[in-house]
Write a structure and sequence with these properties.
GO terms for molecular function: 5-amino-6-(5-phosphoribosylamino)uracil reductase activity. The chain is of the alpha/beta class. The chain is built from 5 helices and 10 strands, in the order E-E-H-E-H-H-E-E-H-E-H-E-E-E-E. Helix 1 packs parallel to helix 3. The mean pLDDT is about 95. The chain has a single domain, classed as Dihydrofolate Reductase, subunit A (3-Layer(aba) Sandwich).
């Protein structure tokens, strides 16, 4: 049996995964429905998969946060306590993550092996360049995009799909959270 792999990403309407300027986390648009839904998603047994850059960003962000900050939302705490695989050719252990395994090598090969061996679904939050490569290799079963109601044309950073291959997307789920944020779940197929 092959484990399902979900590429889970936050995005502005114009396709950026982050923004500079005075934008806060979630672009300031988080609400109770979004936060409860995220916690429910991460309450399920699964294995997280991160690239080195995303792992470093999460580890640094969590290390510099307090229990009261939005960085420590319950779903983020739950994500941090799930088993994780960090794929990197540059990091050295030990990792500052409770149940993380560091695997050196090409992400396509590592994730292909994980999909064959894992007894639980795989999920990656962020890790944009790694997930674009995994999509091109046909290893991503679901792309889950949470679209926040903002346009960050001047301050947008980290274009989510910049440089990605072309894909046809089959919509397999959608919902509106807090009356303003859209979660869209697609099954990607490389466009031939």
């Amino acid at each position: 049996m092959t484990a399902t792999y979900t590429f889970d990403v936050f995005s502005s309407l114009d396709g950026f995964g982050a923004a500079g300027g005075d934008w806060t986390g979630y672009w300031g648009k988080q609400g109770p429905e979004l936060l409860n839904h995220r916690l429910a998603l991460y309450d399920e047994e699964q294995r997280m998969v991160f690239g080195a850059n995303t792992y470093r960003a999460f580890a640094q962000m969590l290390a510099s946060s307090t229990e009261e900050s939005e960085v420590r939302d319950p779903w983020v705490t739950r994500m941090r306590n799930l088993p994780a695989t960090v794929v990197s050719t540059t990091l050295e252990g030990p990792l500052d993550w409770p149940d993380a395994t560091l695997v050196s090598g090409d992400a396509v090969n590592v994730v292909a092996r994980l999909k064959e061996e894992s007894e639980v679904p795989l999920r990656s939050h962020g890790s944009l360049s790694m997930n674009r490569a995994l999509m091109a290799a046909g290893l991503v079963d679901r792309v889950q995009v949470t679209v926040f109601p903002v346009i960050t044309g001047r301050t947008g950073a980290d274009p989510v799909f910049q440089g990605a291959a072309d894909f046809d997307l089959e919509l397999i789920g959608s919902r509106t959270l807090d009356g303003r944020t859209q979660e869209l779940v697609y099954r990607p197929t490389l466009h031939a």
